[in-house]
Design brief:
- The chain is an alpha+beta fold.
- The chain has 2 domains: 36 residues; 136 residues, Nucleoside Triphosphate Pyrophosphohydrolase, CATH 3.90.79.10.
- β1 and β2 form a beta hairpin.
- α2 packs across α3.
Length: 181
């Protein structure tokens, strides 16, 4: 069965610093028409950061879309400060957010963050063999973070209890559990 939709019309709705939004009119496989709201987002990166004492670094920060403080792994978008490489962006984000450089930075997986309406694709890395950075990069304007280390059992408890609601962080914890076996 052919499930592909054909775009008939594109109507730009918003152009911002982080996202672009467009409305699409599409022809469905059965010949009928429908509309789609699409959010375009830059490629993104995130890291499961494991310290020398086998703890995971997570950060707390205010997230305006959900109007609450969230507990997450370090992450950010690939942008003009990078050479276009997600690995370069991850090196920069680790410096900006947790103030470490990882001697070992291994790509674990990549995934779409919310495939129902956005094209955002995120690469997930494992960052180990950490050393403090000697030259701290400035954090993004308006970015205020709290950094704390958690054991695997603590991280799993935070996930089980609903204190972690962020999908990339949940995936990182599950990857850590798999890697620990």
């Amino acid at each position: 069965m052919n499930l592909e939709e054909k775009i008939i019309k594109r109507e730009p709705k918003y152009h911002g610093s982080i996202i672009d939004v467009e409305k699409q009119i599409v022809k469905l496989p059965n010949g009928q028409e429908s509309s789609r709201d699409i959010v375009y987002h830059a490629k993104a990166v995130a890291a499961l950061v494991i310290t020398g004492d086998n703890k995971m670094l997570m950060e707390t920060q205010w997230r305006a879309p959900v109007q609450e403080v969230t507990l997450e792994i370090p992450a950010g978008k690939v942008d003009s400060r990078d050479t276009g490489s997600s690995k370069d962006a991850m090196v920069r984000e680790l410096n900006e957010e947790v103030r470490y450089r990882a001697k070992t930075l291994k790509h674990l997986t990549g995934f779409y963050t919310s495939v129902g309406f956005s094209d955002e694709y995120m690469d997930l890395y494992l960052a180990t063999d950490l050393e403090p950075v000697s030259d701290e990069l400035p954090r993004d304007k308006g970015e205020y973070l709290g950094i704390k280390a958690y054991s695997l059992s603590e991280a799993k408890h935070l996930l089980d209890s609903g204190k972690i609601k962020d999908a990339k962080t949940a995936m990182a914890i599950l990857y850590w559990e798999l890697l620990s076996k």
